[in-house]
Write a structure and sequence with these properties.
The protein is built from eight helices and five strands; from the N terminus they run αααααααβββββα. It is mainly α and 309 residues long. The chain has a domain of 96 residues. The strands form two sheets. A three-stranded antiparallel beta sheet has the order 1-4-5. A two-stranded antiparallel sheet has the order 2-3. It is flat and about 145 Å long. This is Regulatory protein zeste. Keywords: Transcription, Transcription regulation.
């Protein structure tokens, strides 16, 4: 029995066989790497692995492999690719120190990563500080305050801002950003020689006016009021769900009370029926007993008369 259960170890995979296996899996990745686990999908995966095994054995020309061997090897390749990718990612985010290390990811790992996609690399974080802005043409992005007015109906971004509506037209006019050049003089400069506190109450310039429903970019970080709206919607949904659950619980309590009353009425009705049935039976038994006693008395009387005669 032990000899029959002993696992037969096959020959190690060569580099040529590994490349061939990865190439065949890439051709059939839509079926093999499908995440659905229904009966039909599992059957299709089994058929795909059988065809892949036949093709592999026909092309490799080495030791014949079974579908089980190829499945196990593909699983090990995926684990190795994930481990090497995580190691390189951790080293890239390190603070330095010690001798430099080369990338551990091989060409086979790169092909496996291409097949798995986001399942191996993960989705990029776009809603927190892990989002890295691109640096184009080698110029660093300076921290600046960039006003962006965002329409409530159209959330598209724009590099221009809206000016005031003119008195003769109600259309919005786009104004390009203007960079102040050295030597330029601003019109209508204030005379600060006679300073009064009321001068500080003047409204800010038009480019600094930002709608509360828009967004302000400060130092590359974006504060979007849509997240606040989403939080409010989630809170409203939670309140609505709580209300529904309370109503459902109240309805269940009412149904339980009705069923309890019905069962209690049925029980009382059965008790009344049994009591009435018992009274009727008792009355019948009493009448039967009376008749029997009368019959016995008559029989005794007749026997006494016969004896006297």
């Amino acid at each position: 029995m032990n000899s029959e259960r002993e696992r037969v170890r096959s020959k190690n995979f060569e580099t040529q066989e590994i490349c061939l296996l990865v190439d065949l899996v890439r051709q059939n990745k839509k079926v093999i790497e499908c995440k659905e686990t229904g009966i039909v999908n599992n059957k299709q995966k089994g058929i795909a692995w059988e065809k892949l095994t036949e093709t592999f054995n026909a092309i490799s020309g080495t030791v014949p492999r079974t579908s089980r061997n190829l499945k196990d090897k593909w699983t090990n390749l995926k684990k190795t690719a994930v481990r090497n990718f995580a190691h390189d990612k951790k080293y890239a985010r390190g603070t330095g120190g010690g001798p430099s290390k080369g990338p551990t990811e091989t060409s086979v790992d790169a092909t496996v990563r291409e097949i798995l996609g986001d399942r191996l690399t993960g989705l990029p974080a776009v809603c927190d500080n892990d989002d890295v802005e691109e640096i184009r043409n080698g110029n660093e992005i300076e921290d600046s305050i960039v006003p962006e007015i965002e329409n409530e109906e159209n959330m598209g971004t724009s590099n221009s801002f809206f000016t005031e509506n003119s008195a003769s037209s109600s259309q919005l006019v786009l104004e390009e950003d203007v960079v102040a050049q050295p030597g330029d003089t601003q019109e209508n400069e204030l005379d600060w020689s006679q300073y009064t506190p009321r001068m500080l109450k003047k409204l800010p310039s038009k480019p600094l006016h930002v709608s509360k429903k828009g967004k302000i970019r400060v130092g590359g970080n974006i504060t979007n009021y849509k997240w606040c709206q989403l939080a409010d919607e989630k809170r409203n949904n939670s309140v609505f769900k709580k209300k529904l659950l309370e109503e459902d619980h109240k309805q269940k309590q009412e149904i339980h009370a009705i069923m309890k009353n019905q069962l209690q009425e049925e029980h009382e009705q059965k008790l009344r029926h049994r009591e009435e049935e018992h009274c009727v039976k008792l009355k019948l038994m009493q009448e039967e007993h009376a008749l029997r006693m009368t019959l016995l008395k008559q029989q005794i009387t007749f026997s006494d008369v016969d004896n006297n005669q």
